[in-house]
Amino acid sequence: MQRHWLRRAACLALTIAGVCAMAVQAGEPAQQTDAARTVPLGPDPVLGGGAFNRGGGITVAGELRRTVDGRMAVCAVWARSARLDIFGRTRARDALAPASIFVDGTQVRRDLRVFPQVAPTDRYAGAQARCVGTGQAWRVGATLRFHVPYQVLENEGGGRGSYRLTISPARVPNPALGAGSLLPERWTQFPQGGPTVSDED
Questions:
Q1: CA–CA distances in Å: residue 59 to residues 13, 73, 139
Q2: How far apart are CA 111 and CA 9, in angstroms?
Q3: What φ, ψ does residue 34 adopt, rounded to 5°?
Q4: Which DSSP category does 190 fall into?
Q5: Distance between CA 84 and CA 129 in Å, rounded?
Q6: What is the pLDDT of residues 31-65, one digit of tens each?
Q7: Are 131 and 73 within 8 A, CB to CB?
Q8: 149/53 Cα distance (integer angstroms)
Q9: What pTM was estimated for this model as a whole?
Q10: How far apart are CA 39 and CA 44, in angstroms?
């Protein structure tokens, strides 16, 4: 009798796990957690980002998803221009630290470095995004906005000969498609991500 009950419990657990896995594979949002599984973005993600004063910029692409427990999550990715000088390539991710997510005009998260980096493209549909919770209940028609504020990025040396790069809220929807270097493209075109930078905080 006890073995029969244990077998039934195990089958029930496997069934629930299978249903949850199918939901994620079908494009449903993951649970409300920073460690959520990645899911592909839908056909029309929201774009936002920042533009560098020397050209090029950062794009954040994402969308709102309903979690399995009826809450609201944001699933997103980010990209930076492929043609940037070495300072811009290595410091681009830092510009996401003070960036924010707004839902219906209310800030729900600050620091977007949790999201994965992808190559810049004119369409981010299908990109493998990470989902994070907003602390809000799901509601139909909610609006999403990404905001990258004005900031100054400087090298650590400072003083004479220091390098300054500024970033401001972009006036174009996909600033990562812009070029941030006047050098020949073959000198500035790097594989996705350029120098290896960890996505961990």
A1: 40, 19, 26
A2: 41
A3: -70, -20
A4: -
A5: 24
A6: 443 345 789 999 999 999 999 998 899 999 999 99
A7: yes
A8: 13
A9: 0.73
A10: 14
